[in-house]
Amino acid sequence: MKSSRKKKWILGGVGIGALLGLAILAFDIRLKTVYYEVKSNKIEQEITIGLIADLHSCDYGPNQITLTDAIEQTKPDFLLLAGDIIDDDMPEQKAIEFLDWAGKNYPSYYVTGNHEYWTKQIERMRQIVRQAGVTVLEGETLALDINGQTIDLSGINDTEEKWWPKELEQAAASRHNDVFSILLSHRPEQIENYLPHQYDLITVGHAHGGQWRIPGLLNGLLAPNQGLFPRYAGGRYDFEKSVMIVSRGLARESTRIPRIFNRPEYVVIRVLPE
Description:
single chain, alpha/beta, Purple Acid Phosphatase, chain A, domain 2, six-stranded mixed sheet
């Protein structure tokens, strides 16, 4: 009898321990670094890109050191900031700390997200970014010299800017077909509008990884503007002429719904010669 009770206690303890362990994993919101590789015959030397999306003014330690240290460890050639760096409800200070660091340490390029528009002070948001030394893209294509080779970088405003389709047309018309091209935007659900322009790489955020995930079974439960079971929650998506990388973003305390099995991420994209 005593032996049977002891076994039950042991099994109960193991069960509780397993549940606690699972809960710790499920609600883990420590920053992680995620790597992708893209190959192209349009480049000769490796290019390393740091992608930051959906910071939402969240706190990553004093002067954002957890995030900035993660970036430093990967030594990117430049940074892409895919919108919602500044939140409409959170204090701006943590976003400004990161922007100041990025502008001082790396060539950095930014496009707006919907939350910057929701502040109803979009010009001031852009000015904050510019004052930090970060380039704001609004329908332009820049020719960047990276490791002795030219690549084209286009950026467009969020769809809250009603003329964003004209910006996309304008940016695409300015790129060169014979060099590696990147489109920096905020929203993955606009992919059907991006694809006709045949950018080699499309970098976006916005989906927050679908907020809740079940590894191996469910990539995301709910994403803005995609609804339940979003097609583009986060990760790599290959198309005939383009690759789209969707960052799961960095939002933590700014979200009302907790992230589950969905750690915030800093994305590194290595573009390699084919």
